[in-house]
Design goal:
27% of the residues lie in helices and 30% in strands. It is α+β, with helices and mostly antiparallel strands and 273 residues long.
Length: 273
Amino acid sequence: MTETDQAVRTPRVPAARAAPALSAARLAELLQLLKGAQSVELKLSVPDAGLRSAAVSLGMDPLDAELRQVCFFDTPDLDLNRRGLVVRARRVQRKPGDAVVKLRPVDPAALPAGVPSPAEGLGIEVDAMPGGFVCSGTLKRRVDNADVQAVVSGDRPLSSLFSRGQREFIVRHSTREVGLDDLTVLGPILVLKLRYEPERLRRQLVVELWTYPDGSHVLELSTKCRPEEAFQVAAESRVFLSRQGVDLSGEQQTKTLKALKFFAARAAEAASS
């Protein structure tokens, strides 16, 4: 979007509560992280009460969405998550799935020992949302959807999904007592993912609807950009969403953390019964 379209007519909505402003120190940290990042993903989660109105105002068609299943792997006490590790696998409708290992936070300028460099396949991305940000390093591998299903059902070991580099990455940044094949399956969770380009935004917007087994949801809106254009894209996206009547003031939810806690609690209940 090069200029704000002054002719857009949208419903009047209450003024959004401003997200907590970043301190000078945090802003300096963000600017430093952007220098070493390969991309930035700007995210906004919409509260349950605003799901329907957001879908209508943004002109989203659920029939265009891609169906996914996401599974996480951790100990029942979420030991990996406490160490900043996220291990997950996804099945994707009519496309290959993937197996992902993510470490966060990371500093691109001072990667810990044992962390591959971007030249060795590590993806460095800053996730930014109202009031906060985090930089992560990700190793991703394409896998067959049937192989993911076999692991979830217990017919194949979890380690078979991940490359040697990914397995070494997990071992290096987890406790020695945690064996990859001993991790608990946390999930799956159903995800609808829609990519489209709103006419007045003029850049791709990604919508993910995560549906949890208890009937709760997380609707996340996101767009990716180059680090050097992050502030401009953030401002333009905020103006667009506000003019479309999307609630920008809701409490931000991290869909991964919510899923981990939800399924870990279920695993604990099953173990104690």
